[in-house]
Amino acid sequence: MLRHLISAADLTRDDAVLILDTAEEMARVADRPIKKLPTLRGRTIVNLFFEDSTRTRISFEAAEKRLSADVINFSAKGSSVSKGESLKDTAQTLEAMGVDAVVIRHGASGAPYRLANSGWIDAAVVNAGDGTHQHPTQALLDAFTMRRRLIGRDAGLGQDLSGKRITIVGDVLHSRVARSNVDLLHTLGAEVTLVAPPTLVPVGVDSWPCAISYDLDSALPKCDAVMMLRVQRERMNAAFFPTEREYSRRYGLDGDRMAKLPEHAIVMHPGPMVRGMEITAEVADSDRCTAVEQVANGVSIRMAVLYLLLGGNEPALTHARTNEEK
Ligand code: NCD
């Protein structure tokens, strides 16, 4: 039975396709005069954000409200208690209030897993980004955007992304978005190529189900979608490249480079974009860039995930692996 969504790697192909199809149904609610479903009426969801967020936090809140849940926003930033203790204390407080689901973003990789498997709470846990580890709802909304754009809204129903070629470019080392996308895209049958400077490629990447390249120009003509990643300065404790100018010259996407993409290919970015660094304003504002569309799709995906975790009677997702099973 479905309990938590901690990692994109926990989803089977059928789980993922069910979430994408359910999100298409949820997207139709946005076209109605009253954009609300009674599905989660009387259920309480807490958004527990230990790290900064704009899109993800607003998107989860919008999704929860459209499903009629009671929403509590908790911003844990600035707490002086050490991470482990504060997480446990906070969890016990939430449990005492009887929450049904916790959406958590945390700077420590593994925090959502700990919350889900510690026995501190009984609620469903949804990972909204943990350290450099995972961001499963981002990968789902990215896959949803690709399926719509590359296959079609109706034609895509029931389909995965078999044979689609996706290139992910930039700071892979610090990116939970990249990790979640590699896992999910592989599960959905897509071929993934990572392009990054050698210093921003994680150790152990050889075991990931993707190809690695250091040359953006040769990767672009062969892909259906290119996903640009932000250089995550806040997670860097050393110099990973000589200068910003040098980085942009080799790994940034500008108009000339975009012209090398096949005609149908899209440009994606999870946001926040650093214009002039990994992407130029010309590309960010072009019709081929789906950054804003990805945000809108995020609400539908999060509605689908919360509905399937809390509302659906059928076991829609695989049970996230527990300590005992590992
Ligand atoms: C990403 C994140 O926080 O992991 N953003 C997001 O959720 N849309 C990527 C980033 O911060 O660069």
UniProtKB/TrEMBL annotation:
Swiss-Prot/TrEMBL keywords: Pyrimidine biosynthesis, Transferase
Record PROSITE patterns: CARBAMOYLTRANSFERASE
UniProt key word Transferase: yes
Annotated EC: 2.1.3.2
Pathway(s) where this gene product acts: Pyrimidine metabolism; UMP biosynthesis via de novo pathway; (S)-dihydroorotate from bicarbonate: step 2/3
Binding annotation for carbamoyl phosphate: 55-56, 105, 135, 138, 271-272
Reactions performed catalytically: carbamoyl phosphate + L-aspartate = N-carbamoyl-L-aspartate + phosphate + H(+)
Binding site for L-aspartate: 83, 176, 230
Pfam families: OTCace, OTCace_N
Domain Aspartate/ornithine carbamoyltransferase Asp/Orn-binding, first and last residues per copy: 163-309
A GO MF label: aspartate carbamoyltransferase activity
Residue ranges constituting the Aspartate/ornithine carbamoyltransferase carbamoyl-P binding domain according to the UniProt record: 3-147
InterPro entries, per the entry: Asp/Orn_carbamoyltranf_P-bd, Asp/Orn_carbamoylTrfase, Asp/Orn_carbamoylTrfase_sf, Asp_carbamoyltransf, Asp_carbamoyltransf_Asp/Orn-bd
Family: Belongs to the aspartate/ornithine carbamoyltransferase superfamily. ATCase family.
Subunit structure of this chain's protein: Heterododecamer (2C3:3R2) of six catalytic PyrB chains organized as two trimers (C3), and six regulatory PyrI chains organized as three dimers (R2).
HAMAP family: Asp_carb_tr
Role: Catalyzes the condensation of carbamoyl phosphate and aspartate to form carbamoyl aspartate and inorganic phosphate, the committed step in the de novo pyrimidine nucleotide biosynthesis pathway.
Protein name: Aspartate carbamoyltransferase
Organism: Streptomyces tricolor
Gene field: pyrB
